[in-house]
Amino acid sequence: MKEIVLAGGCFWGVQAYFDTIDGVIETKVGYANGNKENPTYEEVCTNTTGFAEACYIKYDESIISLEDLLRSYWKIVDPTLKNRQGNDIGTQYRTGIYYIDDGDLNVILRSKEEEQKKYEKPIVTEIEPLKNFYDAEEYHQKYLKKNPNGYCHIPRELFEKVK
After folding, report:
1. Is pTM, for the whole model, over 0.85?
2. Pick from 3, 39, 64, 81: most CB atoms within 10 A?
3. Domains in the chain, ordered, with CATH?
4. Could you give the C-alpha distances from 119 to 86, 99, 115, in angstroms and in order?
5. Which DSSP state fits 127?
6. Backbone angles phi and psi of 42, in degrees to 5
7. pLDDT in tens, 84-128
8. Which member of 10, 45, 55, 152 is catalytic?
9. pLDDT per residue as tens digits for the range 70-89
10. Three-state SS for 72?
Protein backbone atom coordinates (compact mmCIF):
# COMPACT_ATOMS: atom_id res chain seq x y z
CA MET A 1 0.00 0.00 0.00
CA LYS A 2 1.13 3.55 -0.76
CA GLU A 3 0.26 6.76 1.08
CA ILE A 4 -0.05 10.44 0.18
CA VAL A 5 -1.71 13.50 1.70
CA LEU A 6 -3.64 15.91 -0.52
CA ALA A 7 -4.99 19.33 0.38
CA GLY A 8 -7.68 20.83 -1.81
CA GLY A 9 -9.76 23.31 0.14
CA CYS A 10 -12.33 22.09 2.63
CA PHE A 11 -11.37 18.52 3.45
CA TRP A 12 -14.93 17.18 3.62
CA GLY A 13 -15.36 17.08 -0.14
CA VAL A 14 -11.81 15.92 -0.83
CA GLN A 15 -12.38 12.88 1.38
CA ALA A 16 -15.80 12.10 -0.07
CA TYR A 17 -14.40 12.36 -3.60
CA PHE A 18 -11.41 10.08 -3.02
CA ASP A 19 -13.60 7.57 -1.19
CA THR A 20 -15.32 6.94 -4.55
CA ILE A 21 -12.11 6.00 -6.40
CA ASP A 22 -11.26 2.35 -6.99
CA GLY A 23 -7.99 1.45 -5.35
CA VAL A 24 -8.31 3.96 -2.52
CA ILE A 25 -8.24 1.77 0.59
CA GLU A 26 -8.49 4.33 3.39
CA THR A 27 -8.97 8.07 3.85
CA LYS A 28 -9.01 10.33 6.85
CA VAL A 29 -9.13 14.08 7.15
CA GLY A 30 -6.75 16.12 9.20
CA TYR A 31 -4.25 18.91 9.38
CA ALA A 32 -0.97 18.79 7.45
CA ASN A 33 2.38 20.56 7.63
CA GLY A 34 1.78 23.04 10.40
CA ASN A 35 3.75 24.33 13.35
CA LYS A 36 1.85 23.15 16.43
CA GLU A 37 1.26 19.78 18.06
CA ASN A 38 -2.28 18.40 18.04
CA PRO A 39 -4.11 21.44 16.67
CA THR A 40 -7.85 21.81 16.97
CA TYR A 41 -10.12 22.84 14.11
CA GLU A 42 -10.68 26.18 15.80
CA GLU A 43 -6.92 26.79 16.01
CA VAL A 44 -6.38 25.83 12.37
CA CYS A 45 -9.09 28.33 11.36
CA THR A 46 -7.13 31.21 12.93
CA ASN A 47 -4.59 31.13 10.05
CA THR A 48 -1.76 31.09 12.62
CA THR A 49 -0.86 27.39 12.82
CA GLY A 50 0.41 26.89 9.26
CA PHE A 51 -1.77 23.81 8.75
CA ALA A 52 -3.67 22.89 5.61
CA GLU A 53 -6.94 20.99 5.79
CA ALA A 54 -5.91 17.77 4.08
CA CYS A 55 -6.88 14.21 3.31
CA TYR A 56 -4.62 11.27 4.04
CA ILE A 57 -5.01 8.61 1.37
CA LYS A 58 -3.84 5.02 1.47
CA TYR A 59 -4.11 3.36 -1.92
CA ASP A 60 -3.27 0.11 -3.68
CA GLU A 61 -0.95 0.96 -6.55
CA SER A 62 -1.76 -2.34 -8.24
CA ILE A 63 -5.27 -0.88 -8.76
CA ILE A 64 -4.55 2.85 -9.17
CA SER A 65 -1.25 4.54 -9.95
CA LEU A 66 -0.06 7.74 -8.34
CA GLU A 67 -0.34 9.37 -11.79
CA ASP A 68 -4.03 8.47 -11.99
CA LEU A 69 -4.64 9.53 -8.40
CA LEU A 70 -3.10 12.92 -9.15
CA ARG A 71 -5.12 13.27 -12.37
CA SER A 72 -8.21 12.81 -10.22
CA TYR A 73 -6.91 15.38 -7.72
CA TRP A 74 -6.35 18.08 -10.35
CA LYS A 75 -10.01 17.73 -11.41
CA ILE A 76 -11.30 18.98 -8.04
CA VAL A 77 -9.03 21.98 -7.42
CA ASP A 78 -8.13 25.25 -9.04
CA PRO A 79 -4.38 25.02 -8.48
CA THR A 80 -3.83 28.66 -9.48
CA LEU A 81 -5.71 30.02 -6.45
CA LYS A 82 -3.63 30.80 -3.38
CA ASN A 83 -5.17 30.08 0.02
CA ARG A 84 -8.68 29.42 -1.24
CA GLN A 85 -10.96 26.98 -3.02
CA GLY A 86 -14.58 27.74 -3.77
CA ASN A 87 -16.06 29.96 -1.07
CA ASP A 88 -13.42 28.94 1.47
CA ILE A 89 -10.67 31.50 2.04
CA GLY A 90 -7.67 31.16 4.35
CA THR A 91 -4.28 29.49 4.48
CA GLN A 92 -5.87 26.25 5.69
CA TYR A 93 -7.68 25.99 2.33
CA ARG A 94 -4.54 26.07 0.17
CA THR A 95 -3.84 23.26 -2.25
CA GLY A 96 -0.99 20.91 -1.47
CA ILE A 97 0.53 17.57 -2.32
CA TYR A 98 2.42 16.22 0.67
CA TYR A 99 4.40 13.11 -0.13
CA ILE A 100 5.57 10.42 2.27
CA ASP A 101 7.75 8.48 -0.18
CA ASP A 102 10.61 10.55 -1.66
CA GLY A 103 10.40 8.30 -4.71
CA ASP A 104 7.03 9.91 -5.53
CA LEU A 105 8.44 13.41 -6.04
CA ASN A 106 9.35 13.00 -9.73
CA VAL A 107 5.88 11.64 -10.53
CA ILE A 108 4.30 14.58 -8.68
CA LEU A 109 6.46 17.16 -10.47
CA ARG A 110 5.70 15.62 -13.88
CA SER A 111 2.00 15.66 -13.04
CA LYS A 112 2.18 19.33 -12.08
CA GLU A 113 4.04 20.18 -15.31
CA GLU A 114 1.36 18.40 -17.34
CA GLU A 115 -1.42 20.20 -15.45
CA GLN A 116 0.30 23.58 -15.88
CA LYS A 117 -0.30 23.33 -19.66
CA LYS A 118 -4.01 23.91 -18.96
CA TYR A 119 -3.47 27.28 -17.24
CA GLU A 120 -2.00 30.66 -18.11
CA LYS A 121 -1.50 31.55 -14.44
CA PRO A 122 1.12 29.58 -12.51
CA ILE A 123 0.10 26.63 -10.35
CA VAL A 124 0.62 27.55 -6.69
CA THR A 125 -0.09 24.11 -5.21
CA GLU A 126 2.49 23.29 -2.54
CA ILE A 127 4.57 20.19 -3.17
CA GLU A 128 6.42 19.23 -0.03
CA PRO A 129 7.37 16.22 2.03
CA LEU A 130 4.82 15.51 4.76
CA LYS A 131 6.19 17.04 7.97
CA ASN A 132 3.25 16.17 10.17
CA PHE A 133 -0.38 15.14 10.00
CA TYR A 134 -2.89 15.25 12.83
CA ASP A 135 -6.29 13.61 12.49
CA ALA A 136 -9.18 16.04 12.53
CA GLU A 137 -11.90 15.69 15.12
CA GLU A 138 -14.28 12.76 14.70
CA TYR A 139 -17.19 14.92 13.54
CA HIS A 140 -15.11 15.88 10.45
CA GLN A 141 -14.38 12.27 9.46
CA LYS A 142 -16.63 11.11 6.57
CA TYR A 143 -18.61 14.32 7.14
CA LEU A 144 -20.49 14.26 3.85
CA LYS A 145 -21.45 10.64 4.37
CA LYS A 146 -22.97 11.63 7.73
CA ASN A 147 -24.41 14.88 6.29
CA PRO A 148 -25.24 14.21 2.62
CA ASN A 149 -26.52 17.76 2.08
CA GLY A 150 -23.52 19.35 3.78
CA TYR A 151 -21.46 22.10 2.20
CA CYS A 152 -18.96 21.09 -0.45
CA HIS A 153 -17.04 23.24 -2.92
CA ILE A 154 -16.55 20.28 -5.27
CA PRO A 155 -19.40 19.83 -7.77
CA ARG A 156 -21.24 16.67 -6.69
CA GLU A 157 -21.40 15.35 -10.26
CA LEU A 158 -17.61 14.86 -10.12
CA PHE A 159 -18.16 12.24 -7.41
CA GLU A 160 -20.13 10.16 -9.89
CA LYS A 161 -17.61 10.45 -12.73
CA VAL A 162 -14.78 8.78 -10.84
CA LYS A 163 -16.71 5.67 -9.86
Report:
1. yes
2. 39
3. 2-157 (3.30.1060.10)
4. 17, 24, 8
5. E
6. -60, -40
7. 999 999 999 999 999 999 999 999 999 999 999 999 999 999 999
8. 10
9. 999 999 999 999 999 999 99
10. helix
